[in-house]
Design brief:
single chain; globular; 10 helices; 8-stranded mixed β-sheet; 3-stranded mixed β-sheet; Rossmann fold; 278 residues; alpha/beta
């Protein structure tokens, strides 16, 4: 299989810079803890091939797996997952002669819940930074919920609002295909996404119509779910990631159980708020 490198826009390069900055701070803090001593790991659920092609410059740039492997002090272990065989083959090249690097091919929802998350137990002083950067509505709420309930896992999460708008959050929701509605339900966790995305209003004839709410309203509702349902103690204000037309492509969330984590990510996010293409 030939290498498969995805093209990424400027906003994705910003995201990779954020991952680099936060993973560096995370590993430095966890590595310094001696009483108790924590065993910290890095998890990348939609890892890709490890490299990308910059749409801006045309050059190769490091993806999140390469960034994670370059962090010093290093994580104790790394878990990379992707469903694409060609991308997995590239990742496995990076794992050669590195027993601390584990590469999994398949559906990350199953892999995380059945294989990786059980390994990162709170009582065993294990902690994890988990990147959830789905290609679209490919992430199940069950994974996010489990991470929050375990108390040992922090997440950086791509909330793909543009993909939602394209596939499920239509102005006329009755026209959306049932399969796409079910995908939205799996991502959100239940049917409450409908109340988060639409408001009821009366027309001049007294009929009830649905009015689609703003992207930021939907992202705020998901933030509440991370706090109130998943059980994360600290959830960042979502960072809008914008394209060259200044349209929001997705929101980047961070969720954890630690106040120091919230302070660090807020300092990083604040550098990039309201950025468009430059």
């Amino acid at each position: 299989m030939t290498p498969k490198f995805d093209e990424i826009g400027y906003w994705s390069e910003i995201k990779l810079d954020i991952i680099n900055q936060y993973a560096q701070a995370y590993s430095q803090i966890l590595s310094s803890r001696k009483n108790p001593e924590f065993y910290h790991v890095y998890i990348d659920a939609f890892a890709g091939s490890g490299k990308h092609i910059s749409r801006t410059t045309g050059s190769l740039v490091s993806g999140s797996p390469e960034i994670a492997l370059s962090i010093r002090p290093p994580f104790k272990e790394y878990y990379f997952i992707d469903i694409d065989g060609a991308k997995v083959a590239e990742l496995k090249k990076k794992a050669e002669s590195r027993p601390e690097v584990h590469v999994h091919e398949g559906d990350c929802n199953e892999c995380l819940l059945n294989e990786i998350f059980p390994y990162v137990a709170y009582k065993k002083y294990k902690r994890a930074l988990c990147l959830l950067d789905p290609y679209g509505l490919d992430l199940n709420w069950e994974v996010v919920y489990k991470a929050g309930q375990m108390k040992s896992i922090e997440i950086l999460l791509n909330f793909p609002v543009m993909d939602m708008n394209r596939n499920a959050l239509w102005t006329n929701p009755e026209n959306v295909k049932p399969l796409l509605l079910e995908r939205m339900k799996l991502f959100w966790g239940d049917d409450s996404w409908q109340k988060a995305a639409y408001a009821q209003q009366l027309d001049f004839n007294g009929r009830i119509n649905l009015r689609k709410l703003r992207n930021e309203d939907i992202a705020h509702a998901y933030k509440k779910r991370l706090e109130e349902i998943a059980g994360f103690a600290y959830v960042s204000q979502p960072l809008p990631m914008r394209n060259s037309n200044n349209a929001v492509i997705y929101y980047l969330f961070h969720a954890s159980q630690q106040p120091i984590a919230e302070k660090i990510i807020n300092d990083i996010f604040d550098k990039y708020r309201n950025w468009g293409m430059r």
